[in-house]
Amino acid sequence: LMMQCLREQPRLFALGLGGHETPLARMLKALRWTGVTVPMHARLVRPGRVLRQAPAIRRTRLRRIGANLLGWSGLASLGMGLWDVVSGARMARKQSSYSAVESATLGPWADALWHRVRDRYDFLAARDTLTVEALMPKSSDLIRLRVRLGSEDVGWVSVVRHDFSIGAPDRHLGGLHVGVVADALAAPEHARGTLGAALRTLEGKGVDLVFTNQLHAAWFEPLQDFGLMNVPSNFALYASPTAAARAGDWHEAHVNRGDCDGPIWYADG
Question: What is the DSSP letter of 95?
Fold first, then answer.
């Protein structure tokens, strides 16, 4: 089946996969596909709640004891607050000339942005209005932001926020209120301002935890300035030999979760 797919469309990509050691990833490596990891960054906006509730942090008895101690005592929140002040992350998130307004849909302004920035990256999946609207899952948890610098449209972001205390708890995140910077488009020089607008919006929605996967340096480097930590990522990108030859330098590729099947675990229904 894979060989038939390659004959019909030799420039194939696979994204997500659960990391590089899954059966599919190992098969792609055996077929000499190129594999890279899309880095993940996360921030504990409310550290106490995350430590007390996230199953991923509480796997063993010792870790549960430590998490409870830090979470219930307030030491986690105090430590995160001090780190934000010392590192300048709090100021970086607040001070910006970029503004963002919620937009129900993209429009002609987004297509004009797409035509301006699509050649600024060595690799970039189609992000014209028709494609984005067709691929992004329809969900009440989805918030689309129109980002401006002054009166100029410089980017857009799709953020997702979901309250896992409603319905069945997530096996990794428990009953937390989680935010994701799922997809974004802007020129590299506007990536920092666009991300800052997204993070301010999510924090304003009261999330406990925020995370994102970004491959291009212009998109992941500012995240540390905003207080996000580089954490282990199982978000893998694989490209067929023909696709890899056409893609160029992966460090100049703009790839994030919007290039996958979307945050399907947030979809309504």
Answer: -
What's the N-to-C CA distance of the chain in angstroms?
32
Picking from 249, 132, 117, the residue whose alpha carbon sits closest to that of residue 183 is 132
Residue type at 15 in one-letter notation: L
Note the residue count of the chain. Answer: 269
- C-alpha neighbours within 13 Å on the C-beta side of residue 199: 32
Amino acid present at 108: P
Alpha-carbon torsion, ordered 133, 139, 140, 144, to 10 deg: -30
Average pLDDT of span 143-171: 90
Q: What 8-state DSSP symbol labels residue 190?
A: G
Q: How far is 177 from 193, CA to CA, in rounded Å?
A: 24
How do strand 152-163 and strand 142-149 relate by DSSP bridges? antiparallel
Q: Which two tokens stand for residue 120?
A: 């600024």
Residue 227's SS3 state is coil
Coil, helix or strand for 59? coil
Structure confidence by residue, pLDDT tens digits, 194-233 = 999 999 999 899 999 999 999 999 999 999 888 898 999 9
Burial 224-254 (b: 16+ CB within 10 A, else e): ebbbbeeeeebbbbbbbeebbeebeebebbb
How is the chain split among helix, strand and coil, in percent rounded to 5?
45, 25, 30
Q: What CA–CA distance (Å, rounded) separates 106 from 98?
A: 18
- pLDDT tens sequence across 72-90: 888 878 777 777 776 777 6
Instruction: Collect all residues with Cβ–Cβ distance below 8 Å to 194 and sequence separation of at least 6.
Output: 98, 147, 154, 155, 156, 157, 184, 186
